Structure to design on (1440 residues):
């Protein structure tokens, strides 16, 4: 349980820092006989790649995934799938001079304290680059879930700082609509303001946080393992394991805390030949188990800690100093988190789906 | 991973429904040599007990815990600790007539769909009674954490519907202060309004949600296992596994999503002989690892689903009906969740502390 | 992984020492809808009970199991099943005077070194009494495996010291035949010699070891999870976790190490409408996966360490002494291990069967 | 638990078939700050490599390991260590024509039945090549165990068919002595006979099994987690997870089953400033916990299933046929299993050592 594995029946174990040979993962438990190519996985990796637009950092990492094992003649064998993306751009020199100064709200200090050593440059395992292994593993899960149950998972940017998107129809939103603009906010008017705002932040050397919404449609009824592995509990863990996340809410969320039971309760009704609910304050999960309604949740993401404005802080030895970060930085990363959120969701659902199938 | 176990090195496995012989848990991995009596565990169990006040339901369950194993002459042996609380009040008749109607926003429907069977009365494992096993196990963890590191964990009610407590000093708040009123809100003026409000809801047959805040003081630096078992990720899972929870936020939370990096970043400073931060938007965790600052988080809890007002809904077979629940119900349960949140927090920290001790 | 849990999808967590309130287990993952009564479980518990005959120790423990949870109206709910057997006969005084002398080949010394504390009397968790929780959990698994697949598991005593049973037809042997004599050796002539031998050992205050054989018939093809959880690997773990076991062999076992490939290989042949093998040196498992042939294995059990003959040894502090154990002791326990071996086998198969069902 | 991971605190997840891009593993939980180079790992990989002598198959695979992550400037970071060995020699054509015939005592049949698909050529995950990932991970564990506690693990061939080595002094035997001849039997006279025998088998197109002995010296007292993860139970699992193993015995093993308690019990005595035993029938483990004496065990290995002699058998569809395998094959592989046994032993001890360190 040293932290780099997730899932029980569909188990992903990730590895890799920003500046070693590469990053990747091993997936144990992928069902045999699934059609799978590197291209199937690459789509989501490419979506999370930096350097896609003026909003994000202008690095040009290729992030081409290679399947190392577990697939033959385009079909999964049911054996572990090794996934690997080489690190092409290592540039450790960018960070070298900051070694005596733990970057504020980064993990330099805590990694050093925890392990007594840390990667000499960059964020090591706390870097967003670590997520490549999960995204690749989750992309496989997405494919199986979609082919098996028609599961659709779509995330989008619903807020950038104080700028909030208008209502988005979670029952219809598609990834194509989300990707229609570079900030991945389906409300184009607000998206334009967001892009303008982020561009101005880049000039100021500052950054800003935001909120992601995610919906899962066509999730089979019955997923989630009460009581500690309730579906929303595992989703919460999955989302809070993504770098920079600060909050998670399902269905009515914090707003639900203000509501009365007579309003919040979701009445049952006959719906498309099954029992459904007329409202969905539950967010598609009741008693920790999916109920067939869309699963809807939101994730709060803090502003990137790396900014180019000068920051008064202290060195590891406690001396006051001022940190001025150089090099590339992203003023806003919530749009890049979209595929990470989607694939982490897939990892949770995949594990739960296999678990439920084991139940006679 | 069938859902009823939590933790790896300090592992609790719970059992029990509302209307069987009893509820409890087995704790595997408790350090040997800890002084432990049933009284040590009973305190938190009594705090979570219903029937404590006019705010909560007037059941009078005793919930006396019995240690079945693992302790001899008042000391833990390092072997599994069996914990058991008999069910005294079973009264299955209360629910009998509702068997054809899945209660809205309860787990009747999803349990039936998932397992093909469900407890014939009451909420089964989705009932709050299930939490007894965890609270007992967590109370042991609290004791060890406090004796070993001086860890203090305090939760309180910060909102009841729209009523919000004023600022509470998380660096000093105590359980005695929290328990000073029956609604467990340390802002006495607001607490009085809350009590009045909840009393009126009881008369109306309605219910309301609320928000809990929790702080952990004196948490050792270095707890949390990147990347999937980051400290906030495991806390999020733990909190969302508590019945009726809808959201979790750590540190700045959703408010942090609106902030700029230049404001959100927590600058380092020399503090009491160690490196600390001048602000704590991180909520005591950076890169998934505790940094020595207070760990602060909030949990959203929805209104109890059981209300006595009539609810239009449908039967299992899809026929429209009106449900009128009889018998006891709680209009507000956030105050009873206080010890559950504290002990679940202890379960997470305990597991992480033992994990970090294993690291040479 | 503190050691007292076994299995992933059908997970048993045991608790209890010889002289606390009782012993038992929690089973998480039992399929819902299984008919289950305490009587179903009691049969195997009674078979492992001491005091059944002059061969074993004359204690009269009742070992009546109580189902604490997870079953309602005679059906499993799919929720955790709590199982409990009260300790009726505690008599800690029997062992009191030996506290300064670690009993040779017992676990007194190693428990004290590992935990820094140990149960003040008796073997604590190293006592055979610990196995009650597993036997109860395994008895449920047996029932499900038999009802679902027709799985039959039969173990018997094949050797007592140098006395070896003649050939037993593993394809037909039944538990009734095994229980036909008190030493559970289906070769009645050899059984008579064994009983005579064990009786003489009791008079001499000595003990002897033996060998158990076990066969599983009608195991579904495809169970076992390569590579670390190969079926024979988990069986080996399960068997070596039983107190006093010293060896495990599957199929040809150590004899197979002497054979040539041309003799050892099991040729395939058409058999009852499926592909089978003409010989079974593989013991029903190939590549870690069951192949449909009977699974056959053997377990070596050492002589009980508790004997009444005087033993020169040393105290905890290293002083030479002579230990003369008083009170009850069993000169031979291999017959009592029969239900333990059978139920541990069921625990392995159950977990593997659920695992394989999860695979689409 | 899909089978390709082992360990909890030092967790290895392996991947790779015989004929994909390569094989390897991810190690999660390696202590930070350990000096580590590829050369440290390569030694054991090279020892397990085929093609080392006329006794083994004349393939010339290089099996050069590459560290993908987790190590910087020659020190482990405490983060996952990715390990990879490319497959250089794939030659799938060797096996192509046998696709309709499940090879006797191979895993072709069971993999096909379990997964509904199998690697089109070679043994897939059941091939000995799979062990590369574990050997690499175990070599790191060996290094840490040796540097931390002085642990020495030495395995050797003690039998080849009916040829048995004379007594080997387990308290002194070294790897250099074992490697003094190609068959890795420290009794040179017997080794010469073994080599002669194996050479003759190659000419006959046949194969033979054998026995490995293994000793662990300087194992710390207190390792092993009662009750299911007793040290001998995990060793048994580890050994039976190695391809072609058929049996495991610890200490007195099957011979112990014939002994009397008065002879088998290991009396305590003062020894080098600690309590030790005068005999070691327990094999260094009592109550599932290491007692400070050498841990001694033996493993039975069956004859390799691939032989070039014609074998009557059946096709997948049940038709009688005769299989004549072509290409390379090893008549004896027990000598190549030496490093696999040693490193699997290290994986077990490493996990148990970290577990025990977590215990306050």
């Amino acid at each position: 349980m040293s932290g780099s594995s997730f899932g029980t029946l569909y188990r992903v174990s990730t590895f890799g820092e920003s500046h070693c040979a590469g990053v990747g993962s091993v997936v144990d438990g992928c069902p045999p006989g699934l059609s799978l190519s590197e291209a199937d996985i690459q789509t989501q990796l490419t979506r999370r790649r930096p350097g896609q637009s003026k909003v994000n950092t202008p690095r040009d990492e290729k992030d081409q995934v290679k399947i190392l094992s577990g697939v033959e003649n385009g079909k999964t064998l049911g054996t572990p799938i090794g996934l690997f993306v080489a690190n092409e751009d290592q540039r450790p020199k960018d960070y070298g001079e900051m070694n005596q100064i733990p970057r504020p709200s980064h993990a330099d200090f805590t990694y050093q304290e925890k392990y007594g050593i840390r990667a000499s440059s960059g964020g090591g395992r706390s870097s967003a680059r670590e997520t490549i292994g999960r995204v690749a593993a989750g992309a496989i899960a997405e494919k199986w879930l979609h082919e098996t149950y028609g599961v659709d998972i779509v995330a989008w940017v619903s807020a950038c700082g104080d700028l909030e998107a208008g209502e988005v129809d979670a029952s219809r939103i598609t990834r194509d609509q989300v990707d229609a603009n570079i900030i991945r906010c389906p409300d184009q008017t607000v998206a334009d303001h967001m892009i303008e705002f982020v561009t101005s932040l880049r000039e100021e050397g500052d950054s800003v946080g935001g909120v992601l919404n995610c919906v899962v449609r066509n999730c089979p009824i019955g997923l989630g393992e009460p009581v500690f592995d309730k579906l929303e509990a595992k989703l919460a863990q999955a989302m809070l394991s993504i770098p920079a996340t600060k909050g998670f809410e399902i269905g009515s969320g914090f707003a639900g805390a203000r509501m009365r039971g007579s309003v919040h309760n979701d009445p049952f009704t006959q719906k498309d030949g099954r029992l459904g609910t007329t409202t969905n304050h539950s967010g598609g999960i009741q008693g920790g188990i999916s109920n067939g309604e869309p699963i809807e949740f939101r994730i709060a993401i803090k502003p990137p800690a790396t900014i180019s404005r000068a920051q008064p802080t202290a060195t590891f030895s406690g001396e006051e100093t001022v940190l001025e970060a150089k090099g590339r930085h992203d003023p806003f990363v919530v749009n890049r988190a979209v595929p990470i959120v989607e694939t982490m969701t897939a990892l949770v659902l995949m594990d739960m789906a296999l678990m439920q199938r084991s139940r006679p």
In short: Chain B touches chain A through 111 residues (CB under 8 Å). The longest strand of chain B covers residues 152-160. The radius of gyration of chain B is 21 Å.
